[in-house]
Amino acid sequence: MKLSTYKNENAFLSLFVLGVVLFFISCNKQDEWLDVKKNNSDVVPTDLQDFRALLSYDFIMNYGYPFLGIESSDNLYITEATWNSTAPLERNIYVWARDIYAGQADPNWNALYQKVAYANAVIDGLKKVAITPSNEIEYNNIKGSALFFRAYAFYTLSSFWAKPYDANTANTDLGIPLKLTSDVAEKVHRNSNEEVYNRIIDDVKEAVSLLPTTQHHKTWPSKPGALGFLARVYLSMRKYDEAGEHADAALGIYNFLYDFNTINSSVQYPFPDFWTDNKEVLFYAEDYFARFNVAPRLVVDSNLLKSYNSNDLRRVLFFFTSSGNITFQGTYAGGNISPFEGIGTNELYLIRAEAFARMGNKDAAIADLNTLMLKRWKNNGTWLPFTATDANDALNKILTERRKELPFTGQLRWTDLRRLNREPQFAVTLTRVIGGQTYTLPPNDPRYVFPIPDDEIRLLGIEQNPR
Length: 467
Prior knowledge:
Layout: H1 11-27, H2 30-38, H3 48-55, H4 58-61, H5 68-72, E1 76-77, H6 80-85, H7 88-94, H8 107-126, H9 136-161, E2 174-177, E3 190-192, H10 193-210, H11 223-236, H12 240-253, E4 281-283, E5 299-300, H13 302-306, H14 314-317, E6 319-322, E7 325-328, E8 343-344, H15 345-358, H16 362-374, H17 391-405, H18 412-420, E9 430-434, E10 437-441, H19 454-460
Antiparallel strand pairs: 1-5, 2-3, 4-8, 6-7, 9-10
Helix pairs in contact: 1-2, 3-8, 3-9, 8-9, 9-10, 10-11, 11-12, 11-15, 12-15, 15-16, 15-17, 16-17
């Protein structure tokens, strides 16, 4: 377990985290945790220092995001031996099984609602704290952080357990349950996708207005990080004008890109992590450890590998050979094997470039792509700027480089598949072969929406997703 980035843990943190948090982890139910909180007034956070400590417990707030999107996408390949050695849940996810849980609980769902519970405890608790001239900046920072963390969890939940956002059907499409308070008596139900995405956007917009431009730690949300998150959300909603607008706003505050010619390719994990200040990272989070996200079990898809030019430094810095297989090492988690789940400037350049292309501005789109790619190419005289005959040509090139730039960044390939499958020119059928059996996932298949865990269906009485 990593140490928290919050260095001044006090008596509250020790009591609250070691007692209530460990109980919550053991029972894996948000309401049970909240019930313990309600009945243990001596460990309820009450002041700004308490709330900051709670949100700074990065083992809960920043780590443990799902590996589901990587397991389910076409960037990953695992051998039959690896598949047979993994847990049933991971095996079922990899082949897009209709029943992935087999009656078991899902730690991914529980971990995300645990983040929601922490954020709600802070948001509700802040209502009892008086704002004064001396505490207003910290109060706003904490509130903005809590809103951001809650929205980040809601968005991640929606990326798996709800349909992709569709403006034509969002009012009737079932979304995730929105748990918005720490009140254990609050009744929850499946909100519509429109309600869920409106809540995410409203919360993050409020967070943008409250958060500072820079933070002491990259595990704490900042204004450009929140703007970048909004750009990601709007992109997934296929609202490209808004995506480009917010990516541009974030890059207007901070736009650093590494020149990959300066990165040491002789070490296994070449990129600095947030502890040593990875300068492309705006907000740091990471996925949980999964058995086959480790070399040599994680094998990179051969078609993805073939798409890199020999002068593209990402081919050298992102991948290495382990036990005869090509696997991934380019995580912005540094030497940590868990995939980076946060937000970086590289993603925002690609969002803005795609938005320009979608709006018909091929020159601005290609300019953004070239800004990024110049930093990724060998400094050996082979660089030739990208060109495009029209906006659609620019879009195709941007989407190709997006996949190559962000192959194992959190859920991005999965959410891209979900949104791009709506466009016939970009729709793809995914295929796996295990033990001589072929598994497929066609575009827009119901299995692009995960089933809600069986125990949650029983507990909450909510409707299941069709598979």
